[in-house]
């Protein structure tokens, strides 16, 4: 009987895209994808390690998989696997640990070492820790990003294409550069090819993502900027909407902002990590900008694109953060045109530059600061949403929402919209007239198609959507 596998993903969009690429590689080994890890012969656990909580969750899931499916080969990969492979290898039930350095070879490693019909040679760099094999090195083999562009997405109508990996910044709190290596980019021609494949499947909106997306193309020869890449992609007329995920403040160039402002096919959405509104904390974080720079940047975005979503990541409780630092962050966010925030508590990561900084901020103080910022974000988000009641918004439909006769959609400016008037197919870009606020989003009715006519092709599942190994 065919062997089956299941991939359990944690973490950011880039890690999700890695997980989809792993699925594709395992399908190419003739393993069959199982929807239930409880019944799979191989369970791949694709981890995140950005916070201590992410580590705890990964360990809990590994133990649960082993408890409920004791015969499964458990393969742990991803950022946690790169950071602490021995720690993971010691957990009972783990068969092997494959760091990001070897992630592209996960399928051949599996075939060579644990599956009977291996056409691959046994690899040499294997070490053994209490029953589990470890494949991990601090040298990232693949300097050039190759086959990790892939399609994932909620509702399967908004695929995410990972065009960049790694990071050449060294923010003092961040473990990512040591678990993903320096920045490298998918060549533009390959991005074009992957986008073409997604469009062939009927997708209309594509999100470009990366670990440090704004660094796209610096390692390419000749160099190419993200704005140039986006312009190149927009020449492909079948692409109805292009969305850019998070971009660092210094990398949001005027050229990029102009492109979002001028092209009706660019999603009206800016996500710009802030982290802190205190210059003292930004310096300690080794973030290469000051609060004033950020304030001017988001003001320019609002002025150029009045309806745009403008979001930020903000960290609370960085070591030494005082009430005054926190007040600066609050004041900056209060007076800036933010429409949503992702608020994270600082999490000490061993091996980072900030790990020895003292004094630490007490947990309950960090939690209180986080609550204050989330309340601020909820209020600003509600104000932003309210401004669209009675107006049209361009949305892409995702699919039916549960038992309700409503269809979920996401607007160009990143608002959740429930379409309430009748059946609308998924994967349509439409104009919805907004009728009211909901708890977290908006409700609206379909007025007229916003862009061109509807395509009939239903989008495929992600593994099919990028079934080309590149
Ligand atoms: S920009 Fe800073 S926070 Fe973001 S991945 Fe790079 S080092 Fe980490």
Walk me through this protein's architecture.
The chain has 470 residues and is an alpha/beta fold. The protein is 31% helix and 22% strand. The chain has helices spanning 13-28, 52-68, 79-83, 85-89, 106-113, 176-180, 188-200, 226-234, 254-262, 279-284, 291-304, 323-335, 363-386, 462-465; strands at 4-9, 32-33, 42-47, 73-78, 94-99, 127-129, 132-135, 160-165, 184-185, 205-210, 241-244, 269-271, 309-316, 340-345, 392-400, 407-411, 416-419, 429-437, 442-449. The strands form four sheets. Strands 2-1-3-4-5-7-6 form a seven-stranded mixed sheet, with helices on both faces. It has a five-stranded mixed barrel with strand order 15-16-17-19-18. Helix 1 (13-28) links the parallel strand 1 (4-9) and strand 2. The longest helix is centred in the last third of the chain and has 24 residues, at 363-386.
CATH superfamily of the largest domain: tm_1862 like domain
Number of domains: 2
Mean pLDDT: 88
Low-confidence stretches: 146-155, 449-470
Q: Per the principal axes of the C-alpha atoms, what is the gross shape?
A: globular
Percent in strands: 15-25%
Quick one: biggest sheet?
A: 7 strands, mixed
Helix content: 25-40%
CATH arch. level architecture of the largest domain: Alpha-Beta Horseshoe
Structural class: alpha/beta
Could you list some keywords that capture this structure?
470 residues, 19 strands, 14 helices, pyruvate-formate lyase- activating enzyme, binds iron/sulfur cluster, Rossmann fold, disordered C terminus, alpha/beta
